[in-house]
Amino acid sequence: MINQKKLQAVLFDVDGTLADTEQDGHRVAFNAAFQQFNLDWNWDIDLYGRLLEVTGGKERIRYYMENFIPTELNRDDLTNWIAALHKAKTKYFESQMETGNIPLRPGVARLIQELRQEKIKLAIATTTTMENVTSLLKSTLGAESIGWFDVIGAGDIVPLKKPAPDIYHWVLNQLDLPAQQCIAIEDSENGLKSARAAQIQTLITVSGYTNQQSFDGAVAVLSDLGEPAKSFTHIQGATITKGWIDYEILNSLID
Fold first, then answer.
1. Model confidence pTM above 0.85
2. Fewer CB atoms < 10 Å away: N or C end of the chain?
3. Pairing of β 182-186 and β 151-153
């Protein structure tokens, strides 16, 4: 008899995957924090797209300083100053999430509920902070949704961020599952590299900032997870027999 339960866990990225949080969420929050710190920095849409090649908010700030305003690197206690700036940014982002103006991407809420019904473990593997994760979940799925996830790997819980596989190794260890029984859902090339380096099959749903990136090695690349009333657009990879992603399809993709 074929084992219909070979898929045991689905590992979600957050920014760009669960919701389009980058352009009108994180970017706006960074700029608000810059104003609070009396900085004349402004990350416009195009610049922020370039900066997203660096994963992690604190890492992104340091990269910007190193490459655009190196004279700012002379600040006393630079590491703590960057951490304080990023903490202010996180508070602005949390305030944005409380307004509920950033919805989940198509198919996300439906898929999460279906996976819960199928008793499939849910996990998060992200470089964003735990505060950002909980703010997004609370504003979109309700406060109780945080408890739906068996493991949440976020922020600085591992030393190296994506595209390093550290966060996925950590989540797999916490789940006590082999990579072969899991699938990751990501939106970026760095996320794909991270998950694949941990030997996890990866489904890509592209976002506005990532749709021109390379996704070689993904099991499939789609516009989004789709809904029965509005199918996703298939971009590359495995042929999928329906227009939305559900447990049955995910189970078939880890063959």
1. yes
2. N
3. unpaired
pLDDT tens digits along 3-33: 445 999 999 999 999 999 999 999 999 999 9
- Token digits of residue 68: 């655009």
The phi and psi torsions of 173 (rounded to 5 degrees) equal: -65, -40
- Bridge partners, residue 183, by sequence: 10, 201
Q: How far apart are CA 131 and CA 61, in angstroms?
A: 18
Report how far residue 106's alpha carbon sits from residue 60's, in angstroms, rounded to the nearest whole number. Answer: 28
Q: Which residues are catalytic?
A: 13, 15
Supply the angle between the helices 108-117 and 130-141 in degrees, to the nearest 10.
90
User: Cα separation of 104 and 3, whole Å?
Assistant: 32
Is beta strand 234-237 parallel, antiparallel or unpaired with respect to 220-222? Answer: antiparallel
